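User: Okay, second chain of the day. Same drill as before: sequence in, structure tokens out.
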Amino acid sequence: MSEDFMLDTDALQRRMDGAMQNLRTEFASLRTGRASGSMLEPIMVDAYGSPTPINQVGTINVPEPRMVTINVWDKSLVNKVEKAIRESGLGINPQLNGTIIMLPIPELNEERRRELTKVAGQYAESARVAIRNVRRDGMDQVKKAKADGISEDDQKFWENEVQELTNKMIAAVDAALEAKQAEIMQV
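Assistant: Same drill. Structure tokens below.
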């Protein structure tokens, strides 16, 4: 009956890749003591009556390893951008110089580094949970096909495929976490 069952492993792979991409984005927003334009991505500025990403109101540059500058295009938005950065919780004190906002990145202390590694661990665990949810969906599809009449050998084959894909993605999450924690702890 359903001997020609084909599990869409590409769809499962795409969903797992999405979880991995989300993890990379969350890791990029973690401050490691080095300047990075991506750490400003989550910040929204109240520009022209609506929340606008900070990279759409000015040019973000990293002129030195411990400095980020934002060249705000509209003079009337400079104070709003500064306020958004102060309220973002990044722990950075913006300095104004005309339409350029300078963000000196302070050195992280040992306690803050440990806190950031814990946050990175929480982000990684969220990614693992998302990947396991995709695995569960894939296994459910295989079980449904089993009920529809695929052979036990086919069922085992597809379950192994889903599990191998999951193991590969979990290993990628663990490797990304290890690299990020090493980067955070690097003085």
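The chain has a mean pLDDT of 87.

User: Thanks, on to the next one.
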